[in-house]
Amino acid sequence: MKDISVFRLKLFACLALLSASSAMAADIASAGPQFNDKGELIRLEDYRGWVFLNSALGLTYGPNRPPAGAPQVFTSVFVNPRAYAEFQKSGLWPDGTIFALDIRPGIAPASALEGARTQGPRVALEVAVRDSSRYPDGGWSYFSFDGPRESGGALLATAAPLPRTAGCYACHQKHGAVQWTFTQFYADAFERAKQLGTVNKDFDPARKIEEAGH
Ligand code: HEC
Q1: 203 lies in some domain
Q2: 102 lines ligand 1 (CB under 6 A)
Q3: Is 134 exposed, middle or buried (0-12, 13-18, 19+ CB in 10 A)?
Q4: 33-67, pLDDT tens digit by residue?
Q5: Residues 174, 127 share a domain
Q6: Separation of CA 112 and ligand 1 centre (Å)
Q7: Is ligand 1 within 6 A of the CB of residue 93?
Q8: End-to-end CA distance of the chain
Q9: Are 15 and 48 part of one and the same domain?
Q10: Is there a single domain that holds both residue 55 and residue 73?
Q11: Which residue has the least CA distance to atom 15 on ligand 1?
């Protein structure tokens, strides 16, 4: 009898520990970026449960741009909740911010109204991380988790920071309205940045983005 209750107690302790550690793992994943010992970013698993900032249609002008006549592509942006909470207070994206840019073709469902579009399966995942000690030259680094095209949207498990010469840095630095981010396209966040006076001084809403992007 005694043995059974000790066993039960041990089992209970094990279960409690297990559930605490998986809750912790989920918490850590959405709390900040995780790197391996080569400095590669580990793929984000749960970003679609983070804070949703915007979904744009037709804002692709690089490799993901559809051929003429094909439906436009959706780019949806998510940010980790802890960074968003900080942004609400300061109007700036803090160290530990991770943005996920999820790219999906627009689909025209046969049953829907003419011109209606829904999102198809993901074709690309691009990420920006802010960490001013890891990336002293501006504070941001960019990553692409896109696997080879022929893999049909399969993503890489880890991604190395893209080199400073990659087009990401120049375009984001030049055209982003808050730090190096396109907060001008995330309506609620942009309002907050305007209230708190954190919009870049040289931001010009009329300046066209003409370089090739996502
Ligand atoms: C020609 C300009 C341009 C280039 C080059 C570019 N981007 Fe962007 N990026 C944008 C625009 C515009 C948005 C606005 C979001 C949208 O599409 O909805 C954006 C948004 C993002 C976001 C969401 C967070 C933010 O900064 O607003 C990520 C992450 C991102 N880009 C990653 C990348 C990566 C990685 C590369 C390089 C492989 C890259 N970008 C290259 C223009 C660019």
Answers
A1: no
A2: no
A3: middle
A4: 999 999 999 999 899 999 999 999 988 777 777 88
A5: yes
A6: 30
A7: no
A8: 66
A9: no
A10: yes
A11: 182
Ligand 1 centroid–CA 26 distance in Å is 26
**Domain containing residue 142: CATH number:** 3.50.70.20
Least confident of 109-113, 139-143, 147-151, 206-210: 147-151
The DSSP bridge partners found for residue 92 are none
Range of the domain at 5: 1-30
Q: Are 25 and 46 in contact (CB under 8 A)?
A: no
Regarding the beta carbon of 59 and ligand 1, being less than 6 Å apart is answered yes
The pLDDT tens digits of the residues spanning 88-124 come to 999 999 999 999 999 999 999 999 888 899 999 998 9
66 and 172 together in one domain = yes
**Protein residue with least CA distance to atom 36, ligand 1:** 168
CA–centroid distance, 97 to ligand 1, in Å, is 15
CA distances from 3 to 7, 10, 12, 18, 98 (A): 6, 11, 14, 22, 50
Q: Rounded to two decimals, what is the model's pTM?
A: 0.87
The verdict on 51 and 64 lying in the same domain is yes
Q: Is 1 in the same domain as 66?
A: no
The pair of structure tokens assigned to 145 is 């988790």
User: Total domain count for the chain?
Assistant: 2
